[in-house]
Amino acid sequence: MSLPTSVIAGGASAHERDAHGEPAEAARAGVNISGLRRGHGVRAFFGALGVAQWIAVGFLLLLLVAALLPSLLAPGDPLAIDPGDAFRAPGWGHPFGTDESGRDVYTRVVHGTAPSLVIGVSATTIGILLALVFGTAAALGGRVVDFGVSRFLEVLFAFPGLLLALLVITVYGPGIVTSTIAVGLATAPGYARIIRSQTRAVASSAYVEAAVVLGKSRGRILARHILPNAVAPVFVLVTLGVGQAIVWAAALSYLGLGAEPPAAEWGAMLFAGKNYVTTAWWMTFFPGLAIVLSAAATTVLGRALQRRSLR
Amino acid sequence: MRWLLLRLGGAVFVLWAAATLTFFGLRLIPGDPAQAILGGPGSQASAEALAQVRAEYGLDQPLFTQYLTQLGRLVTGDLGTSYSLRTPVVEVIGSQIGGTLLLAALALIVAWAIALGLALWSTRGGRIAAGVGSALEIVAAAVPHFWLATVLVLVFSTTLRWFPAVSTAGPEGLVLPVLTLALPLAGFLGQVMRESVLDALDAPFTLSARARGEGEGGVRWRHVLRHGSLPGIALSGWAFGWLISGAVVVETIFARPGLGRTLLNAVQLRDVPLVVGMVLVVALGYVVMTVATDAATRVADPRMRAS
Amino acid sequence: MSRRTITLLAVAAASALLLAGCAPAAGPATSAPAAGGTLTYATGFGEPDCLDPHNGGNMPQALVGTNFLESLFSQDADGAIVPWLATAGTPSADGLTWDITLRDDVSFSDGTPFDAAAVKANIEQIQDPATASSTGILALGKVQSVEVVDPTTARFHLSEPDSALLESLAQTWLAMESPAGLARGLEANCEAPIGTGPFIVDSWTKQDSITLVRNENYNSAPAGAAHEGPAYLDTIVWRFIPDSATRFAALQSGQVDVIDEMQPDNVVAADSSDQFDVLTGALPGASIRLELNSGFAPFDDERVRKAFVHSADVNPGIQSLFFGTAERSYSVLSSSTPYGASFPDDFTIDTDLANQLLDEAGWTGRDSEGYRTKDGQRLVVDFPVSTNQSIPAEQSLFEQIQATTKEVGFDVELHPLDLSSWYSALGSWDFGVTSAIYTKNSPDVLRILYHSSNIVPAPSGYHANNAHVSIPELDSLLTEAGETTDDAQRASLYEQAQKILSDGAYVLPLYDHLQKIGYSTKVHGLSLLPTLQIPYFGDVWVQQ
């Protein structure tokens, strides 16, 4: 469960080591981030998009529509059952087929966008927000705070993520909200480590030193210089984490602890379809495709954003 | 020396906190440990039997007293006796840990190999290779274990009959579980490694190596690969915890004995000593892995050796 | 010999013949049984904590235990009691003592002779709190002591008459174990109980498998068995494979020979293949059913319960989800348990009636989502679902119940829970409706499930009467039925009791709890022992 952020943390800790290794590289890390700060601007960003990126943007817009106005794309009721029409293969009338209760898979995939993205985005957001508090506190709060927070994060990391999720869910009962919180908690330590290292790198960078020399107030430096620059790369990495959060919520479903039925949530659909993978492949294929494409689209855009900011 | 002491203190703190969190976490959720001892939830154990068990295991003491008692035992290295299996926790873990470690280690190696191979190949082969490699990584990373396992069994066991569907004594039973754990991990590792391989290809040290007239193969092998593997090494510590989580699902599906499956059962049965014991072992494993990866990073990254 | 004993034995003989006629359920007998070989069985019921079924007492223990332990009595396909290790059971006129006569030619696999002293030792071990029995001790609730009259006669002294005594003694949870084995203490006995069965526990690798080897001195085959004497198989490897898809894949790839707990679509696939066959049997006890918690709102109002029952359209779902492998039941009792009574008319689908009943009950408002309300409160029905007990197809059926009852304004909220949490929710009465399994080889299961005294929780918090049924008339019917041994009277009492449950809409029966065993056609001679529908391997041989 901790992997999505571990990946990110791993990447970042390599950078961190770069930063500690050579002062010149530390400066580069600062510049990496300040690439955004210098403001290539939204227009410049979109101007540099390739075909893949444009497809990704298009798909994300489609997701946005599906999440906000699902009935526009699929006017049917995602919960309407029709047992007589169960296990229908994709075809006319049911482009993605029907599930074990005769519900339309296409309608469910479309209506499942919102809850799935909510899980993905809010789990990641919870992780980031917690990480922001811990990470900046660790980086700027002096040795004692740093030591305490770092050990605390290590404890969370040492915990098997799934166990953490199991405990949260058995205390508060299964459901989308608890799954989200569980996944968010499990991912927080990873993000916190990145923020800590980025904040440190930024805090020791030339322009912050300049601001200190210029006698700017501590709060002002934190708000104007450190935070925005420490958070920017994290924002990029979030796009990689969203898809992962959805997948982990699906794993919770496998253990019987995910979204409550009959919610049309992609992970839960994947789980329900797993039992019929030999006879009704479409029950897992389409929600699975939705997860993969969402993850792919956010990753492609996240990469583009990262490349931009590195330049 | 000071570094070592701090490190050790930190490790002890991590172990203590993990045990404490688990103990209170498990005791706060619904479910009665006395029932776990008496044949699982829903048992219709008699009042006498329950009272006897509560007294025997100290479950009639205040929660904090129970906590101190258990902590005291842990300090002396006694992990206690499992409620549901009625065997010493050390014995349970001892008999299960081998399978899980083997599974996790193999999965890590396979994931590494796939990720590194993919990263090297796709950064060399131009735009199309880059696109394909990237797509493979994204798909692999976005596939849940339980689904991947089902599909692998369907293809390689039911249809092709190449590998058994459930664990066997021989190595052939390991193939599908290892692949199930390794493929998503390879997706993650690949995504990260590609970035650093790309970085390394543009880095001054690569340029200077080329300028010195080293062949492309040598450059890639000596410099790019080394740099590209850095985040992967740093990641392996965390991957350990993640593999344990993944093992819960994989061991259940492939009916492999192991820590993951035991952990899930223990949580569901509210088997406090067993869960605490396993969390301690996993935490210890994590601490060891972190130290090991730090050491490995020092070997792979010359800058770290200097500092 | 009393009249009752005679009829009992007559029935036994008749049913033994009957069973012998239909026992070879596996494939055509192509050749004579061949001795030797190993059979691998994969169970989805889970791994026992202890192999002695006297401790605790659940299905996983009974399944594996039947291979090495045997009971005093057995049952035929109609649920009638037949002899096994005992030859007869005769009650006294007041029903307070039972004389159980025993076979004199049986020994446990450690050489200890099976006799009345062994019976006494077993009953006392089950009743000892240190054994921590839950199923066995409950079944012996009315047994005060066992007296050794002579080596082949054990006299049971009861506190009150118990018409279900012999049925209780037929369960594997009260099977006979060697007194020498029991004397080793619970821990050793958990590892390898010693019985009289066709196999002996050889080794148990936790979380992996149990290995059973043939008992060369076996001579106590149950009624209906195809042959007497030692089993054909050398070894049974008993594996634990929790994932149903993996279990079926393992059968398909030939890694295992027999599996249980099959998913409905796998049953169909195996049935249509010429490499595999399926053996099904309805587990005795209660059918799979929804219990409406009549103790608390909203189901404390009979009209609301009836509205639910008349709007929960399950027949189409049972058809499609179970692919014709399950049949709708209108009885609280399983079809394999005697005295079941069906009342289909009480369970018709009638949305107009349901709407009318809800209007009458005061649930007249409707909120923005279409759910009914009363005094601003929504008509919520919490439905905790045990993910351990309810198979996926069943959970899908619950979703369909949720969808069809929504049409008349119920807001059924499904909560999938792990076993401990699920029991907690039930224990605190924190639910509107739930589905709980209860396996027992006697109609006396009705008393356990619906007698008001079982609303009071056991010390562990468990209560069997989940529907919170508390009707004095029903209580006295069930108590009387539990004490009488007259068949006609029992039938009448149990029918009246079931009519009360049906009239009051306390229960919505769905279908029988099916034992679904899939096996390779290389496996011959497999049958289910009717008592608990457990596979019997004493007659099984594997084609080489």
TrEMBL record, chain A:
Residues 113-302 form the ABC transmembrane type-1 domain. It is found in: Cell membrane. Residues 1-24 are annotated as: Disordered. The chain crosses the membrane at residues 44-69, 117-140, 152-170, 176-195, 226-251, 280-301. Gene3D superfamilies: MetI-like (1.10.3720.10). Residues 14-24 have a biased composition (Basic and acidic residues). Keywords: Cell membrane, Membrane, Transmembrane, Transmembrane helix, Transport. It holds the Pfam family BPD_transp_1. GO terms for cellular component: plasma membrane. It is a multi-pass membrane protein. One of its GO terms (biological process) is transmembrane transport. Belongs to the binding-protein-dependent transport system permease family. This is Peptide/nickel transport system permease protein. It comes from Herbiconiux ginsengi.
Automatic annotation (TrEMBL), chain B:
It is a multi-pass membrane protein. The keyword Transmembrane helix applies. It is found in: Cell membrane. InterPro entries: BPD_transp_1_N, MetI-like, MetI-like_sf. This is Peptide/nickel transport system permease protein. The keyword Cell membrane applies. Residues 97-297 form the ABC transmembrane type-1 domain. CDD domains: TM_PBP2. GO terms for cellular component: plasma membrane. Belongs to the binding-protein-dependent transport system permease family. One of its GO terms (molecular function) is dipeptide transmembrane transporter activity. Its main location: membrane. It holds the Pfam family BPD_transp_1. Gene3D superfamilies: MetI-like (1.10.3720.10).
UniProtKB/TrEMBL annotation, chain C:
Gene3D superfamilies: Dipeptide-binding Protein, Domain 3 (3.10.105.10), Periplasmic binding protein-like II (3.40.190.10). Residues 81-450 form the Solute-binding protein family domain. Keywords: Signal, Transport. Residues 1-25 form the signal peptide. InterPro entries: Peptide/Ni-bd, SBP_5, SBP_5_CS, SBP_5_dom. It is found in: Cell membrane. GO terms for molecular function: peptide transmembrane transporter activity. The keyword Signal applies. PROSITE patterns: PROKAR_LIPOPROTEIN, SBP_BACTERIAL_5. One of its GO terms (cellular component) is periplasmic space. Pfam families: SBP_bac_5. It is a lipid-anchor. Its main location: membrane. Belongs to the bacterial solute-binding protein 5 family. PANTHER family: PERIPLASMIC BINDING COMPONENT OF ABC TRANSPORTER (PTHR30290), PERIPLASMIC OLIGOPEPTIDE-BINDING PROTEIN-RELATED (PTHR30290:SF10). This is Peptide/nickel transport system substrate-binding protein. The lineage of its organism: Bacteria, Bacillati, Actinomycetota, Actinomycetes, Micrococcales.
